[in-house]
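Data card: per-record layout.
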Amino acid sequence: MKRFFFAAFFSSSAGLALPARAQIVFPEISEPVGKISATFWENNGVYILTGSAFLAAAALFFILRRTKAPLPTPYEIATAELHKARAADDDNAKAYALCISGAVRGYISSIYRIPAPERTTYEFLELASLENVFDAEARSFLEKILRLADMAKFARHDFLSAEREELYAAAEAFIESDNKKRAEAHKGK
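The structure for this 189-residue chain is written out next.
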């Protein structure tokens, strides 16, 4: 009998159901009305946090991204090639002439859309005179540059220091004067 008494005592204290007992009702506590739904933040919090993180990452990307340096102009490229040719302490006249004439031909090709690098000196000078792009002074500079360069490239002529300086000066004078004329024409518009 003791066992039965202890079993009943422990089962009631452990919260197990006892045979029919009266339900206790508290009048100040009302019955639950419907199901309690989740709050706005419980429903949408993950989406809001994910969206906020994405927007913060996008803002940081646009703020911290590196801006690209502007591309150099044809004038800057040609001037850099001329300085590179002058700085090269090379006795190879052909390489020097190729660099100088390449700078001039590349400048003309970029600015005037004349296919200067693909043409022979004769073809190019004829094409330049037909298109009336260059005045007489510019054509004389071009002719001097290209003839001196052709002597080194094809006749294997070794430049004296005066001839190297003359070739460089003619190329630099042509590029500078043409760039100045284009800048003045652009200001006038």
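Known properties of this structure: The mean pLDDT is 80. The CA atoms of residues 37 and 169 lie 86 Å apart.

See the next section for split statistics.
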